[in-house]
């Protein structure tokens, strides 16, 4: 039997399924963040189409400037392709320290407005003003003041889109409606009109596969989705995620906690057959690592710390914890670190960790770092691999988990089949 636990940093009363139309959530999304930071640092680049990328012709573009976007240049394109669209494109190699400096500056500005600020990634944050309504009766005015404060205190070239709504999801949706320099509020009186103009895939979190399911069930737009009962959505979407889609479109807060994970763990209780076969035990360990990988990818995290724990039939336990120099996300990397440490410990302890009286094995990952930070730190060596992993998960999302399995998973097919469908509620609503 598997059990998986997530330990979100619980803030009392913030995630609830009852609607709260009076809550005031601001979602701040910096526009073309990395490129704007480069232009902030170097005024010669301002107003020009630039891209932050690996620097060689085959390099992947990680951030086009607002000006480059008007030529159709997009994140993920090769520099070669982008230059065809925009011959005067400047390519800049990434400076992660600079982006981090501006990120910290922006978060400090946001904290001047509310103590309740949750960074969502290097260029996004949620500011909860629900408890500040006496201080700030006009959310639009605060949003404009935030934009000004960022430009005055951090950098005049830094623009952001701000969405205002009674929950995090709708506030994020509102930032997507106007870019750059947007300011949109979604409330009870305009939500239906707005949702009528959108496609299902315009909702962050609805990919083509889910869209197809919804359309087959007669739900063609986010508007119809909002007015479909939670039970029907649950039936169509095949799980509790359906409930949450109803709630988040109806002003309940079900998304605020998702960035506040402190750790993720995957634990397996072993049968007597399994505990007598070391090879199977390692396969299970690998399966647990792969499961954590899929959840790290889903939540856009890398982990800087991993831990292992085994318990035994005589109630004893054994555990260790590794702090890594570089954050990781890859399940086979997590496995490699654990295996190395287990091998070393077995030698020094002169005993088997995976012995025949082992009862459970568990893996924990924590000290999360948003993936946007990591990509730039490890740009050269790992970006390609990380993008490949994202693509793999994207394909899984489109076609179902079983269609695409990494070579290493192939070997462990049986073990992995065993764990398909195990996961927590939170993973389904992400
Ligand atoms: Mg952005």
In short:
It contains 19 helices and 13 strands.
Give a topology summary.
Layout: E1 2-8, E2 25-30, H1 33-41, E3 50-53, E4 61-64, H2 66-69, H3 79-85, E5 90-92, H4 96-111, E6 117-121, E7 124-128, H5 139-153, E8 160-165, H6 168-176, E9 183-185, H7 191-196, H8 208-216, H9 222-226, H10 230-237, H11 241-249, E10 261-269, H12 272-275, H13 278-298, E11 301-312, E12 317-328, H14 331-349, E13 358-370, H15 371-377, H16 379-399, H17 407-411, H18 413-419, H19 425-429
Parallel strand pairs: 3-5, 8-9
Antiparallel strand pairs: 1-10, 2-7, 2-8, 3-4, 6-7, 10-13, 11-12, 11-13
The structure holds magnesium ion.
Magnesium ion binds at residues 29-31, 33, 123.
Q: What would your notes on this structure say?
A:
The chain has 430 residues and is α+β, with helices and mostly antiparallel strands. Helices cover 43% and strands 21% of the residues. It is built from 19 helices and 13 strands. The protein has helices spanning 33-41, 66-69, 79-85, 96-111, 139-153, 168-176, 191-196, 208-216, 222-226, 230-237, 241-249, 272-275, 278-298, 331-349, 371-377, 379-399, 407-411, 413-419, 425-429; strands at residues 2-8, 25-30, 50-53, 61-64, 90-92, 117-121, 124-128, 160-165, 183-185, 261-269, 301-312, 317-328, 358-370. The protein has a 5-stranded antiparallel sheet. Helix 10 (230-237) packs across helix 11. The longest helix is centred in the C-terminal third of the chain and has 21 residues, at 278-298. The protein is globular, with a radius of gyration of 23 Å. The relative contact order is 0.12. Mean pLDDT is 82; it is low at 1-14, 377-381 and 407-430. Residues 29-31, 33, 123 line the site of magnesium ion. The site of magnesium ion has 5 residues, from strand 2.
């Amino acid at each position: 039997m598997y059990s998986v636990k997530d330990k979100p940093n619980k803030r009392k009363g913030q995630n609830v399924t009852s609607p709260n139309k009076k809550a005031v959530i601001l979602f701040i999304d910096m526009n073309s963040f990395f490129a704007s930071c480069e232009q902030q640092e170097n005024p010669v680049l301002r107003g020009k189409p630039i891209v932050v990328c690996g620097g060689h012709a085959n390099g992947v573009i990680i951030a086009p400037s607002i000006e480059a976007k008007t030529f159709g240049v997009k994140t993920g394109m090769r520099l070669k392709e982008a230059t065809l669209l925009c011959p005067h494109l400047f390519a800049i190699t990434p400076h992660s320290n600079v982006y981090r400096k501006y990120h910290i500056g922006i978060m400090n500005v946001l904290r001047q407005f509310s103590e309740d600020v949750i960074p969502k990634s290097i260029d996004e944050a949620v500011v909860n003003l629900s408890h500040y309504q006496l201080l700030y009766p006009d959310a639009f005015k605060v949003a404009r003041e935030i934009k000004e404060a960022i430009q005055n205190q951090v950098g005049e070239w830094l623009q952001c889109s701000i969405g205002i709504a009674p929950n995090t999801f709708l506030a994020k949706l509102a930032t997507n409606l106007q870019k750059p320099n947007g300011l949109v509020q979604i409330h009870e009186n305009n939500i239906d009109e707005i949702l009528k103009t959108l496609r299902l895939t315009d909702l962050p979190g609805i990919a083509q596969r889910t869209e197809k399911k919804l359309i087959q069930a007669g739900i063609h737009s986010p508007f119809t989705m909002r007015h479909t009962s939670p039970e029907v959505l649950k039936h169509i979407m095949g799980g509790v995620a359906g409930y949450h889609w109803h709630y988040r479109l109806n002003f309940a807060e079900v998304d605020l906690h998702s960035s506040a994970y402190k750790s993720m763990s995957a634990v397996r209780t072993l049968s007597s057959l399994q505990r007598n076969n070391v090879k199977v035990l390692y396969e299970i360990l690998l399966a647990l690592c792969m499961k954590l990988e899929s959840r790290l990818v889903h939540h856009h995290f890398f982990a800087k710390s991993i831990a292992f724990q085994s318990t035994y039939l005589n109630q004893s336990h054994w555990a260790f914890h590794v702090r890594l120099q570089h954050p990781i996300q890859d399940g086979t990397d997590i496995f490699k670190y654990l295996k190395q440490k287990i091998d070393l410990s077995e030698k020094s302890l002169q005993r088997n960790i995976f012995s025949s009286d082992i009862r459970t094995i568990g893996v924990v990952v924590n000290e999360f770092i948003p993936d946007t930070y990591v990509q730039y730190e490890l740009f050269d060596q790992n970006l390609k691999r990380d993008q490949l992993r994202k693509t793999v998960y994207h394909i899984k999302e489109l076609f179902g988990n079983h269609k695409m399995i990494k070579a290493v998973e192939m070997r462990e097919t049986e073990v992995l089949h065993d764990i398909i469908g195990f996961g927590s509620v939170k993973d389904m609503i992400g």
